[in-house]
Every structure is written in structure tokens, then in C-alpha cells.
TrEMBL record:
Residues 6-90 form the Large ribosomal subunit protein bL25 L25 domain. Belongs to the bacterial ribosomal protein bL25 family. CTC subfamily. This is one of the proteins that binds to the 5S RNA in the ribosome where it forms part of the central protuberance. The gene is rplY. One of its GO terms (cellular component) is cytosolic large ribosomal subunit. GO terms for molecular function: 5S rRNA binding; structural constituent of ribosome. It comes from the Bacteria. NCBIfam families: bL25_bact_ctc (TIGR00731), PRK05618.2-2 (NF004132). PANTHER family: RIBOSOMAL PROTEIN L25/GLN-TRNA SYNTHETASE, ANTI-CODON-BINDING DOMAIN-CONTAINING PROTEIN, RIBOSOMAL PROTEIN L25_GLN-TRNA SYNTHETASE, ANTI-CODON-BINDING DOMAIN-CONTAINING PROTEIN. The keyword Cytoplasm does not apply. Residues 98-178 form the Large ribosomal subunit protein bL25 beta domain. The keyword rRNA-binding applies. This is Large ribosomal subunit protein bL25. Keywords: Ribonucleoprotein, Ribosomal protein, RNA-binding, rRNA-binding.
Length: 201
């Protein structure tokens, strides 16, 4: 999985006044969990652009005064009105421990159902995967090649290499729905066939 680097500064004072001052200065208060003790730090709000405002999934290298920590985004809080980032929680990665995170779904292949006029509906844009940090995929491939009109692609049909999908077996990733145009054409064809049968009689 691709990684981005965020440079920040550790902070000792984590009270409300200090946190407000941090935000007023255009910085974001953050915490890293998963280690021996939480690590509090701040970073420029602009540094999170590639991490937060993207459909892609990333691991993160947090760099604090030369010290580097591998983490993933765990939780983020936005201001209800301005949508500014208020706070971010990270979780420290351990090379030997599996973690769970959401990654985007990438549709591949050509569906006969779509080529025949059906509409592809993506039910799950992201899927939860469980893996060691080194095996985290950038995306999960959903191959729609077998899908005819009206078919569904279940999570059990997704190929998984060195990772597990954390969803029930009946989870639908995507499906090919019959479009209105295709349905109308089928109805008209059925009517025409019926009318032809009546004439023969």
C-alpha cells in the first residue's frame, strides 16, 4: 500500500485552551494510539489533504522531530458547520500484527450484462480488509466478467491475496441491474411475440 509522510510536532499540553490555540493557528491536534502510551502531536491542516480528501487508501509515516512512526488513520472529526478538521486519531502499525482497514473497490473486466444494456451498480465502494501491514492492498479488485443481466457479485467471489475480507458471505459488492430501456425492449419483444402467436392461430 502507498504511504504518505506527515511532518508534525509533539505537544505536551493537551488541555482545551492549548487545543483551541492549536486550531486557531491552522494546525490539527492528533493522537497516535497502539504504542506503549499515546503520542500527541500537531500538524498543518494542509498536510492532511492527500490523506483525507481522496478515495484512495494510504498508510502514513508520521515524522516528529526526526522520529518516524508508521500509522494508519483510525478516526477523524470534522466541524459540523465549516467542515474543518478538528481532530485525528491514528493507530501505530506493528509489522507482526494484522490490522483492519477500509480500501477502495476497483471494478475490472467487461460484463456481458452491461454490454447487453444492463446498468452496473456498485453496492460497496470500500471493503474492510484484514492483513499484516506489508500485505495491505491499495484496492480490492471486483471482476465483473461473469456477470450477466440481473447477476450479483458476492464478496466470496473476490480474489484475496495475503489478506482477508471482513464481511458476511452474503455481502453484494456489485450487481448488473436491468435498465429501463432494456426492460421496455424486452416487454415490447414479448408483446410482439404474443401478437405474432395470435395471428398464427
Amino acid at each position: 500500500m502507498k504511504s504518505i509522510t506527515i511532518k508534525g510536532s509533539e505537544r505536551e499540553n493537551v488541555g482545551k485552551k492549548a487545543t483551541k490555540a492549536v486550531r486557531d493557528a491552522g494546525m490539527v491536534p492528533c493522537v497516535i494510539y497502539g504504542g506503549n502510551q499515546p503520542v500527541h502531536f500537531t500538524a498543518d491542516e494542509r498536510a492532511f489533504k492527500e490523506l483525507v480528501y481522496t478515495p484512495n487508501a494510504h498508510t502514513v509515516v508520521v515524522e516528529l522531530e526526526g522520529k518516524k512512526m508508521d500509522v494508519i488513520l483510525q478516526d477523524i472529526q470534522f466541524h459540523p458547520v465549516s467542515d474543518k478538521i478538528l481532530h485525528i486519531d491514528f493507530f501505530q502499525l506493528n509489522d507482526d500484527k494484522e490490522i483492519v482497514m477500509e480500501v477502495p473497490v476497483k471494478v475490472v473486466g467487461k460484463s456481458p450484462g452491461v454490454m447487453a444494456g444492463g446498468v452496473l451498480r456498485l453496492n460497496q465502494r470500500r471493503l474492510k480488509v484484514k492483513a499484516l501491514p506489508k500485505n495491505l492492498p491499495d484496492f480490492v479488485e471486483a471482476d465483473i466478467t461473469p456477470l450477466e443481466m440481473g447477476n450479483k457479485l458476492y464478496v466470496t467471489k473476490i480474489k484475496t491475496d495475503n489478506f482477508k475480507l471482513m464481511h458476511p458471505d452474503n455481502t453484494v459488492v456489485c450487481q448488473v441491474r436491468i435498465s429501463r430501456a432494456a426492460m421496455k425492449a424486452a416487454q415490447e419483444a414479448a408483446k410482439a411475440a404474443k401478437a405474432g402467436d395470435k395471428k398464427k392461430k
